[in-house]
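Thread: "does anyone have the structure for this chain?"

Original post by V.I.:
We have the sequence but no experimental structure in hand. Need at least a predicted one for the grant figures.
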Amino acid sequence: MGLTGSSSSSEYSYYKTRKVFLFTNYILLGLASSCIFLTLSLRLLPSLCGFFLILLHLLTIGGAVSGAAAASSGANRWYGAHMVATVLTAIFQGSISVLIFTRPEDFLEKLKSYVREEDAVVILKLAGGLCVVIFCLEWLVLSIAFLLKYYDYVEGDGRRTARVQEEHQMGNWSSPFQV
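Reply from O.Q.:
Generated one for you, tokens below.
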């Protein structure tokens, strides 16, 4: 009786964690696309730094979409790639936000924006604020993905635990292992 109650509560906890993971990935997707629109409003496509900034936000969108797809399908196939991509984009988002808030004029000079400097600094600081929020959300997504993987490992979906139990219950070991 107590066993089924704890099982249903752990399933409920897993379900809620999965929903929070999907929700944070959707928020991350919206923030990264908003950041792309803000950087595009700076008219910085001719510069190489501007291209890399937009590419960073596109990689963030790709990571959010792959995380949401993996959580929706329940497959753990792309878990490692998702974790590595999320860590890298989180590190780059954090560094870009620090660069934007500490030296916006120098950053705009490298971006070669065609917008007036006063307006461009405001737009850039808005994008920097979004980068800070993206940075925090990506670390939240990483910790939730770790929790989901931990739930999979502990619960085992009937696959891993059944095999371990089968190996422990075998009474007839092969001859090299007999003592």
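V.I.: this helps a lot. Residues 14 and 99 are 38 Å apart (CA to CA).
O.Q.: and Residues 1-5, 158-165 have pLDDT under 50 and may be disordered.
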